[in-house]
Design a protein that fits this description.
alpha+beta, three-stranded antiparallel β-sheet
Length: about 130
């Protein structure tokens, strides 16, 4: 899948694909207007939402309501480098959630493609090309 990344103004950078747009911006201290999440925040959110898709699918397949189910994602960064060192996903369920499925929820979340991609990262190729203005 190709994505088109463009620069609509200010510190905004948008990604376009499948008829969708993901907008990003920077906070004022980064020269932006804080009109959208920062790119790194979108990246972090993709981890928890991907795990959530697998949990949702598990519950749907078994007819288990997801009312009161949520994921708390804790992103721990190195205080010196700012690099992401650990991501914790806590799946919170209400007392009525079937206890026999607690470990299955964890296994479902572990199927997340974003998590698997981070565990086996792709290579990157970056190049420039010249194109005529549209």
């Amino acid at each position: 899948m190709d994505m088109i990344i463009d620069f609509p103004g200010g510190a905004r950078v948008d990604a376009h694909f499948r008829g969708q747009t993901i907008a990003t911006d920077q906070p004022p201290q980064g020269g932006g207007e804080d009109s959208a999440p920062m790119p790194f925040e979108v990246f972090l959110a993709s981890i928890g939402t991907c795990a959530g898709i697998y949990i949702l699918g598990f519950c749907r397949q078994r007819g288990i309501p997801t009312d009161g189910v949520r994921i708390v994602q804790r992103n721990n960064r190195n205080p010196f480098t700012g690099a992401l060192e650990k991501v914790g996903l806590e799946i919170q369920v209400p007392p009525t959630f079937p206890k026999q499925y607690h470990s299955a929820l964890i296994r479902s979340a572990e199927l997340c493609l974003v998590k698997k991609t981070l565990e086996n990262p792709p290579t990157f190729e970056i190049a420039t090309t010249e194109v005529e203005a549209a």
